[in-house]
Amino acid sequence: MANILELKRLPSPAPKPQSLAWDGATLWMGSRETKRIYAINPAQWSVGWECAAPDVPWGLAAVQGELRVVCGEGQDDIRFIRRCLPGHGFDGRFRVPCPDGKGSHLGWDGRTLWLSQWYPKKLIALGTEGQVERVIQIPHEIVGQVIVGGLFYLVTTDNEESDDYFLTRVDPRPALPRVDVLIRLGFSARGLTFDGENFWSNHREANQIVSFARPDSQPVA
Questions:
Q1: Across residues 96-125, what is the average pLDDT?
Q2: Domain containing 101 — which CATH number?
Q3: What is the DSSP string of 177-205?
Q4: Residue 18 belongs to what domain range?
């Protein structure tokens, strides 16, 4: 299988970049090491704003001018979804438990927030109170997700100790969702987002953020 076409490989503004989101102008990154959220200007590659997260920000999604963040909290790393207001910080009153206390990355389809669970290999549609509304089982471990044109794009692997990480597309519309492995990333990736033209992911252990070309021709809504 072919590898992605890398466009940019840039130094992360903080070590161990873990989560990514795009809000139309800003690339948001959450660091596993610093436990902070960073607003990156992609043209200047500079940080315009940052704030401390309640704990490790495993996953991010841009939702109607705000951020939703999967935070692993406490000694047992129990996962909760938090609300972050850009320019202000985290809303201490907003704390939605992830199903079974597990979850890593987030996607927003314009109406519904979707949570991925790495080892259970699940995409989970969440209601406003965190209730499970739909579950899509994926045949691979999920280490990043973004929703583009109604389709899920995932970073997946079957061996996290290897460099065999792939961009996988999921069409949720059929009764049995269609899963297509599109292309190989060739590095141990974490997180995924889409800027309207290209994808971004983190090479966490190299402290780099990578932009790569979209490998398919599916239309963007």
A1: 97
A2: 2.120.10.30
A3: -EEEEEEE--S-EEEEEE-SSEEEEEEGG
A4: 6-213
